[in-house]
Amino acid sequence: IRFIVLFLYWVIIYFIHLSNHSHFLMENSNQGNFAPQAQQAVPAGMDFMTAVKTCFSKYADFNGRATRSEYWYFFLFNFIVGIVLGWIPFLGWLVSLALLVPSLAVAWRRLHDIGKSGAFYLFILIPLVGWIFVLIWLCKETQPGDNQYGPQPLA
């Protein structure tokens, strides 16, 4: 089961990475076309360390927006920490408890980024199908421009 979850996670990360660099593919496919290219409205994303640092600096900040890469890289960090420290009974439990609030905060901000209220994260409590809705929302592309939850995150 852990291998299946890890595989699905890496597929999601791959598609996020691919969508963040799709403007590069479009520019190179039009080598003979000298027409100006439209600028990409969605930010390029952030790397692993920047995402983890951002999530810890906004430890309990449920306001604002978080990009897909910020959310999924922090999810990867939680997954790795959970696997490594899950074998140590008290320490694993303590670290999981410490990561609970920033995990909820970044998920809340991620839902803000697609234009939904963070309270939609509570759909995860609906038995059997709730997590499917939340997963789809967490994978959606950033809503371009400003929305009611704040300006578009830069990266």
Explain what this protein looks like in three dimensions.
58% of the residues lie in helices and 0% in strands. It has six helices and no strands. The chain starts with a helix and ends in a 16-residue tail after the last helix. The longest helix has 25 residues. The chain is an all-alpha fold. Helix 4 packs antiparallel against helix 5.
Overall mean pLDDT: 79
Radius of gyration, in angstroms, nearest whole number = 17 Å
Number of strands: 0
Which regions are unreliable across 5 or more consecutive residues at pLDDT < 50?
21-43
Helix content: 55-70%
Determine the oligomeric state from the structure: single chain
Largest sheet: none
Query: Total number of helical segments?
Result: 6
Strand content: under 5%
The helix/strand series, from N terminus to C terminus, equals HHHHHH
Distance between the termini: 33 Å
Briefly note the structural class of the backbone: mainly alpha
Shape: globular
Helix and strand topology:
Elements: H1 2-20, H2 22-29, H3 48-57, H4 68-85, H5 89-113, H6 130-139
Helix pairs in contact: 1-4, 3-4, 4-5
Summary keywords:
0% strand; 155 residues; mainly alpha
